[in-house]
Design goal:
This protein has 388 residues and is α+β, with helices and mostly antiparallel strands. It is built from 13 helices and 14 strands. The strands form 5 sheets. It has a 4-stranded antiparallel sheet with strand order 10-11-13-12, with helices on one face. A 3-stranded antiparallel sheet has the order 1-3-2. It has a 3-stranded antiparallel sheet with strand order 8-9-14.
Length: 388
């Protein structure tokens, strides 16, 4: 029983629930992107039915059924779940109201530009491949892309005995932090936080307090309070509290429910009505009609919508020499991203890697800045495109 449970636990940790620090992807996400790469579904190609994509992923790489693959594909294309989406969707992919996505036979998808960067040079023997579940196909162990996915999109997962919850961050800030780490490998978390201002949630909201962000990024565990963004409108002598942004991973239905519960419990007694006016043209718009306009009512209503969430949780790094007693998690993860870029691209002795002439200056710059790298492990510093 002990050996069986240990085998199960390791399988969940490595092959299901937790992302790989090198590409920030879970196995199911990685297999979907690779299957779309095999179908040539780039940003300039036509959209293909999600049923075809899920069928190829399940049949070749992820033998758990199309109904398991489709929710993962949908999530990678939802702008309210991912800061930088990997799926360019077409059709109903759901919303955070919440609305369920349409069936896979109705929706279509292709890869976004960010996803293409994740798969860049995968056909040039840059990463290791292993046989799939039945030995008929080969799949990559990790994607070689230059996009820092784990830092920019974050991730969450619950395994056996451990869990992770990392917030998304801004790509420009992360690129600036990576550049600092390359120039100064011994920098501390305070120096990195001069570049990374804090989480950049796709749904917006207001982070209450910067010190909580600093604590979470330094120690790997923290409680970050995010509140909805609102403003006041006046129409025909009445005042309305209008919410245009909600906390990350909080649905509009949850906001309405929390507000209704606050009214029922007597915490707020001057709300006349609440309407969800969200649509594709104006975006999120939740309107609360007030019976009488007093600042106390507005304050209590805003507090009822505000949500405290633990976004950075249970991230542990254990150095082999035990020299570090304080966990500067932001430094560790950023350094891991740099190391992943340097070690993911493994060029075997027996395989020639042709370097295009127009990229020669990049290799010259890398060799000048990072002389400690050998000829087989080359880290390419890519430009950050604004169209990601």
């Amino acid at each position: 029983m002990k050996e069986s449970y240990l085998t199960y636990a390791l399988s969940v940790i490595h092959s299901r629930a937790l992302p790989d620090v090198r590409d920030g992807l879970k196995p199911s996400q990685r297999r979907i992107l690779y299957a779309m790469h095999e179908l040539n579904l780039g940003p300039r190609s036509k959209h293909r039915k999600c049923a075809k994509i899920c069928g190829d992923t399940s049949g070749k790489y992820h033998p758990h059924g199309e109904q398991v693959v489709y929710p993962t594909l949908v999530r990678m294309g939802q702008t309210f779940n991912s800061r930088y989406v990997f799926i360019d969707k077409q059709g109903n992919f759901g919303s955070n109201r919440p609305d369920n996505p349409a069936a896979m036979r109705y929706t279509e998808a292709r890869m976004s530009r960010a996803a293409v960067h994740m798969l860049e040079d995968i056909d040039k023997d840059t990463v290791d491949f292993i046989p799939n579940y039945d030995g008929q196909e080969m799949e990559p162990t990790v994607l070689p892309g230059c996009f820092p996915n784990l830092l920019c999109n974050g991730s969450s997962g619950i395994a056996v005995g451990m869990a992770t919850s990392l917030p998304p961050n801004n790509l420009t800030e992360i690129a600036s932090a990576l550049e600092l780490l390359l120039d100064k490998p011994d920098c501390d978390v305070d120096e990195l936080l001069e570049h990374v201002q804090g989480p950049d949630f796709p749904t917006g909201g207001i982070i209450m307090g910067r010190e909580t962000v600093r604590v979470a990024y330094r120690h790997g565990r923290g409680l970050i309070t995010v509140r909805a963004r609102h403003h006041i409108e006046e129409k025909r002598g009445r005042r309305y509290l209008v919410f245009t942004q909600v906390p990350y991973q909080i649905t509009v239905a949850a906001v309405i429910e929390s507000t209704v519960n606050a009214v029922k419990n007597g915490k707020i007694d001057s709300i006349s009505d609440i309407n969800d006016e969200t649509n594709s043209r104006v975006g999120l718009r939740l309107v609360i009609e007030l019976k009488k306009a007093i600042d106390e009512i507005i304050r209590l209503a805003v507090e009822s919508v505000g949500q405290a969430r633990s976004y950075v949780d249970d991230v542990e790094f254990s150095p082999e020499d035990g020299s570090r007693t304080e966990l500067d998690v932001l430094v560790d993860i950023t350094a891991a991203a740099v190391e992943a870029g340097a070690t993911t691209i493994n060029i075997p002795d027996t395989v020639g890697y042709a370097v295009p002439e127009e990229y020669g200056h990049i290799f010259a710059y890398v060799r000048e800045k990072l002389p400690e790298l050998d000829e087989k492990n080359i880290y390419l510093s890519a430009h950050c495109h604004n169209d990601l």
